[in-house]
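Hi C.,

You asked whether I'd gotten around to modeling the 339-residue construct. I have! Everything is below, sequence then structure, no commentary in between.
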Amino acid sequence: GEYTVADIATTEGYEFNTGYYGGWGLIVIYENSKMNSRSVTVFDGYGYVKVNNNFELPVSGFNTTQNGPVNIKIGVMAGEGDRTYSGDFFSIQKQSDNSWLRLRHSGNNPNNFFNSSINIDGPRNPNLLNSTGVDISAFMVPNPNNSVITNNQTSTKFRYGTNRDFYIIFLIAMAIDSYIPNLEVVTTVANINGTPVGSGTLSVLPEQEIEYKIKIYNNGTEAINNAVLHIPIPFMTKYIEGSGSNTIFFNPLPTPNTLTFNPNEGASGSIIWDIGTLPISANTSDILGELTFKLKVTDDCNILKNLNCIPAVVINGTSSGVGAITGIPITDLSFTQGY
């Protein structure tokens, strides 16, 4: 959307041989399931930087992705940086040799980072070359061969300072490709009474058997420990003893990898697959495990004619586990209903 601000309370004039400045900025942290997972850190405060003063800001608490390129995006808001005065800088420490990389974007340079420029995506009004004391920028940090931030990294540092111009930083934000556990379990109906089914609405009759197929994926960027599936049996069906079969498609096999049926858990019992550790996949479409089992639809008239009972067979299974790196728990995550 379009955001407009007016009537900002500011003061005109000079103090301590410098003019006042005024402006506004907005940072939005959002979630998009179609994008890579990122760890976002925001520092909201007030840092006054004067001549010949350098500062370091340590950043920790993130866990970068386990393999592949690490993408880094930085956002900065600051005030009082002058376009005509150089000597101010904003740097990030390189993990490859602990040296400092002076940052820049398309509207400034490494020796005059705070230069009253606004560098953001999308249109703005007014669109000025010199924003007279207001710096707002969002830009990608070059990270060739992960030399700045690498895989499995959990901390870094910023350094900023000046030898001529002075300025005020009031926001620093960093978004970085990170670990996240993302377990997906998809359930589908394989056949009814031995006959394969297609898509669309399916119907069954009393005493008919339904075979289900459960597929497991790790769509995250870290392994998942203590992965367990719980599948309560719908009250209108009964589990066919011995029909459960579990298969693992990776090596080494996880432990304990046990498949059991507990008749005392839930209204009609529950299937429990205690898998163990699920590794990350090179391709998120890789199936890590598969479970098949059969249910028989009840012929109990007392159940079928009960007006309070919905005549449907629905598998409402859940999965749980914990991220191997982050320790983020997955608790009672519902299965995805397939076709």
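If it helps when you're writing up: The longest strand covers residues 38-49.

Thanks,
B.
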